[in-house]
Amino acid sequence: MPGLLVFSVGAEQVAGGRLELTLDQFGAVRVEHRVGDVVVVRGGTVDPAVPARVLNALRSVPGGVGGGAAEARRLVAGDTEWADGTETPVPGVARLLEALAGQLLQPHLPAQLPGQLVQSAAVDPTEAGPAAAIGTVGGRPAFALAEAGRGFGLAELAAGGASLGGSDADSGLLPTAVALGAVNGRDLFAVGAEDGAVQVWDAATGTLLHGTSGGEGAQVVAAGVVEGVPLAFSGGREGEVRAWRAENGRNLGLLAVNGRGAAALAYAHCAGLDLVAAAGGDGTIRVWDAGAGTQLHLLVGHSHRVGTLAVLALGDQAVLASAGVDREIRLWDLATGELLAVLLGHSATVTGLAFTELAGEPVLASCALDGTVRTWDVYRGTGINGWATGGAWLTALAIVPLAAGPALAVGDERGRIRLWEPESGTQLGTWEPVGAAVGPRPVNALAAGALDGSPVLLAGYGDGTVRLWADGAERYLLDADGGAVNSLAVAGELLVCGTVTGAVRCHRLADGAPLSVPTPHTGPVTALALGDGALVSGGADGVVRVRGALDGVPRLRLAAHQQGVTALALGSVDLRSLIATAGGDRTVRIWDAVSGAPGPALTGLTAPAAALAFGRYDGRAVVLVGSDDGTVRAWDAQNGSVATELPGGAAGVRTLVCQEMDGEALVAAGDALDTVRLWHLASGTLLNEAPLDRTPLAIAFGETGLHVVGPGGAITL
Question: What's the confidence (pLDDT) of residue 1?
């Protein structure tokens, strides 16, 4: 049977669109989702185990040629076709292809396939739209404007106002959002970028105060305690490896991998050195002295992606084990970088490695997608034992020290963790989540730790949850935040998680309480706000981050909108600082800006909101919401009820502001058809409507009129 598969799902099966997936026998995959005239295309690679499983299943299922309704599911492999509604319906293995398509199109949602099997290709940056903000610089009205291909800049708001600085088109920063605000008497200017970076300047002096780099996508993590301080290391398929203090998110620097990223990380303390190893998608392994930031070794030998690493400290020596898609396990001497042995035996991608000890001798354990667990003699570089576990893909491995001796904890694609005695291969038990909301999810990562002197096991799942197991019982469950968990590490009393969307999660090991994280947005920054001492940013990754405006110290990470943040605003209600956020899910949410506690969710929008503002209506605090369908509504900020709707046009609202003047609240909004409207909020009366020569991106009330900023600069009405 030919190796090219084409799987399509008609619009009646896929809400609002049509889906087509193409997969070849080498693992190249492409998914196209079409909704009307909008087409979303995602690509990547899958482990060879995926097409092998599909093709093997199809060989035993008779197929036909042609037929079937156009809107039905259809699967084609060479000249053989299956179509629902015919005598040869699409076989059950197509569920695997549906899961694969969903994982590529919506990585933030629960995943049914192990993360080790699916590698999505980087999405090409799209051209950023213009963005603007109005504020003050040095006590004078000013505006910030960012335009595609022109960089970003500051200028005085007055007609023909002088430039106050900025960047050019060659700055390397593709701006997507800007903000101006005053904090502790200093005028600040913030810029968000296409790659997720956020930078903050002193607007008056042009001094860069702080910033996050972008494009990291930190899917894998490692951690260790260095001189009593827990440190974490994070990396993704692009960018450098970042080091930071795990308890407060303080950035400690980068370990350079020439922008090639990391598919696996490992930490070890040996011979007085803090060692970090990173394996890339090209099979190359780099080893650093993390304390000095210097690279010690460049280990070359693997022919494909390395997805798992383990380190064994032996006095003043250390052995690194590495494995991945090429099915080889390599042992390296970390003192010299010398290759010690190549271990052969697995017939599919190796997904887990861990060192243990049997009869006083060091032993390496491994698991793979071939469904087998193997043990190896480290000194001799030979196999000891191996056993099959029942055919499921094995995805992760860790050592659990039990009273009777070490046990191998092995996770699989069905969400099970099975314990095995490493010498005989006897199964000791099975740990499996009970009452999972939507069926089993794969175990993507395992890590061993200790609480109160007793061993515990941490498991990260494809649905984004993390569970802590002790004595076979689930002690606590951490909810999903940032998509499927791909990597886990324990550093003393801290737990660090890397997720498929590139977010890093940090929790207190004892009770799972969330701690600050330093990672940037994992997609374009879509909205920024400055105020009350805070910098608030929202991204296409659906996350809202709150940092100190002057120092950049992380304060909050809010998983706000799964379909991306489209707008945000800062406001104050009864002396409480609040954040309003809007998303592609057509909801607006209110959050406490200090604690992150969620408030009411405003639902019922017919289109996503593109502009938000706080104001007062009928004696109560309201959130004004301008949507892509042209509507402007006011919602009660305390209970989420609709307060009033303002008459307007049908074009999407692009900017919105509410200002109290002479005791009356006025609302101004600009839309995509280059029109500005002015309302009296209390009565809902439309006071004025004016056409412009540019699309309004920011509006502010001034002493001489209404200031509007759009492409090309500022005007006053």
Answer: 44
